[in-house]
Design brief:
Blueprint (H helix, E strand, L loop, with lengths): L1 H10 L14 E8 L10 E8 L5 H11 L13 H23 L3 H22 L3 H13 L2 E2 L10 E2 L8 H10 L44
Antiparallel strand pairs: 1-2, 3-4
Helix pairs in contact: 2-4, 3-4, 5-6
Length: about 220
């Protein structure tokens, strides 16, 4: 897979890893799924590497999570409904702070609220193990294929989807697969009828409170 090829470059000493979202001077565990051996349920192979600090906003937030021993992952995966609800509430709180600052024309408050909102959103992406820069590029490319609404048909400043515009979801899923995401990993096989996609099983999902959830953990066991 593409993400394993990149990992091979890092382990081989390739220093051109500026686009690596885990570009920090610390030891990181990378997890790779492999075929199970006899008696194994969810086997993993573990790689260790030392990476350097990066320069993106995502890098900074990841550094924050690592520094304070918060939940973070290198492979895309699901959070429990409890944890997702917590993150939704957190982002809603920051959005409300921006709303209040906007009402008062408080530019400093608006700036602080926006940065906090992005910080929490990127923190959630760290928890989900999302390859942020690649996902961002896919969505950005899709947005750049939109067009300005024609004059005389409403607000000329509105950007709309032209005929034939392709949504980014398929490419987003491809990026997640390239980085090790497999939905069945997060589903109870007993719920799979072999045809329809099985539902995500909450007890298998990541959470910083229920440590038994899933074997993809950082060094803190979270």
């Amino acid at each position: 897979m593409q993400w394993l090829k990149r990992l091979g470059g890092w382990l081989g000493g390739d220093d051109t890893v500026l686009n690596n979202p885990f570009y920090y001077a610390t030891t990181w565990k990378f997890w790779q799924w492999r075929e199970p051996k006899s008696g194994e349920q969810r086997p993993l192979q573990v790689f260790h590497t030392t990476v350097k600090r990066g320069t993106t906003n995502y890098d900074d937030v990841l550094h924050f999570h690592m520094h304070y021993n918060l939940l973070y992952h290198a492979v895309p995966g699901h959070l429990t409904q409890r944890k997702l609800g917590e993150r939704v509430d957190f982002m809603a709180e920051e959005l409300q702070e921006f709303i209040e600052a906007a009402k008062n024309q408080d530019l400093v408050g608006q700036a602080d609220a926006l940065v906090d909102l992005v910080y929490v959103a990127l923190g959630t992406a760290c928890m989900l193990g999302l390859p942020w820069e690649e996902l961002w590029q896919v969505v950005h490319d899709a947005n750049m294929r939109k067009v300005r609404r024609a004059e005389g048909t409403g607000d000329h400043h509105t950007i709309v989807k032209p005929q034939g515009w392709v949504a980014p979801e398929a490419k987003l899923l491809e990026v997640l697969y390239d980085h090790g995401y497999t939905k069945n990993t997060w589903c109870d096989s007993n719920d799979w009828d072999g045809i329809n996609a099985p539902p995500v099983t909450d007890r298998l999902c990541r959470d910083d409170e229920v440590y038994k959830c899933h074997p993809l953990k950082n060094d803190s066991g979270v």
